[in-house]
């Protein structure tokens, strides 16, 4: 009888371990489908800065710091934005961030500063560095023949390669994936730039964001920024996801 009870107990314990193992595995897989708390906090910071809605930006900045973003990460987010929404919006964002940091300091809150950007050691020309970064972003080599706006105004193609994709993207405070999340957030918020949003959402997928994560991104735009902006972003995302299936 004791032997029989012992065997029954071992079977039950094994079943419990298997159950917890399955639940644990499901949690790991499920967690990969969603954006992290820090990623989610970046979206409204970028969007409100782009729209110039500074009161809402203040709340978003507080939430971002509370979520674990460092001071330098948030500064880098706002600096990155000027390439997409202009210096005036970016500078107003930085001024608002200064106000938030002063408020928190007066309350005895010490926020983590975080790492500074490392010096760039790559000896290639800025144009070649920018081209290499862009090729990594889109996941394919670029041709040498320009077309469209790049052929019409070649200087802007140089500015994009040398400044945006070299000077800015070479700064390692943010990863490429984090920078692209910032980019799609501001493009979704300002509206009217669907071709650029399409390109950058495709880059997000190339960098490893899942359809679930990008749909979650659109939901955050809907809840924090507005239904109109979210509807436009969702339409672009749906096109990309449909193309991926074909």
How would you describe this structure to a colleague?
The chain is mostly helical. Helices cover 76% and strands 0% of the residues. The chain is built from twelve helices and no strands. Helix 2 (37-51) crosses helix 9 (176-190) and helix 2 (37-51) crosses helix 11 (211-225). The chain starts with a helix and ends with a helix.
Structure in a nutshell:
Helix content is 76%, strand content 0%.
List the keywords:
AhpD-like, mainly alpha, 246 residues
The CATH architecture assignment of the domain at 37-114 and 172-245 turns out to be Up-down Bundle
Q: What coarse outline follows from CA principal-axis ratios?
A: globular
Q: Could you spell the SSE succession in H and E letters?
A: HHHHHHHHHHHH
Helix proportion: over 70%
CATH homologous superfamily classification of the domain at 37-114 and 172-245:
AhpD-like
Beta-strand content bin: under 5%
GO molecular function: peroxiredoxin activity
Domain Carboxymuconolactone decarboxylase-like: 161-238
Protein name: Carboxymuconolactone decarboxylase
InterPro entries: 4CMD/NDH-1_regulator, AhpD-like, CMD-like
